[in-house]
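Subject: sequence -> structure tokens, single chain

Hey, anyone have a minute? Need the predicted structure for the following. Not urgent.
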Amino acid sequence: MLYPKINNVEKNHFTIRLLLGISIAISIILITINLLTTHNVRWAMLAICGIVYIWTITLYSIYHNINIASHVILQTIATAILTILIDTIIGFRGWSFTIAMPIIIITANVTMFILTLVSRKKYYKYAIYQIILFILSMVPMILIFCNAIDKIGLSLISTICSLANAVIVIFLCGNDIEEELKRRFHI
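Reply:
Had a minute. Here:
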């Protein structure tokens, strides 16, 4: 009788704890930058709320065994739209495009990378979602090229993060991605 192979739970927990620690460090850096640059606008707290929101969704999805990648994409889109709406409501200062959207995209890429690492030999399950995320990640660069964004720091970092994530996934499972694309799009 064959038994299902069980993933190394300790290694998965270590990966999640490590990346959660990185998220906490990023939050501390955001607060520091916020305090040093703009005292009257608490944009760091909004960005941290986004990070917490995505971590909550990710951990919920991991421990409740649902299609995590589609959930991450939907939540990324919803959060981006929400931040744009909040920015518009409070007088549109542009932070939703220059700060929040790049941070949301970086967080989504990190989340997808975690999913790719945790679900060994099933990388192809996330291939379509990785492509969708990569396309979404190009929005900040398009806005930069259209001169809609004047502060390009975080947007450039989010694009580099997306590109690195795409390259790593293609390197890990290029053939599987090709087969999955053929299967889904009947190529």
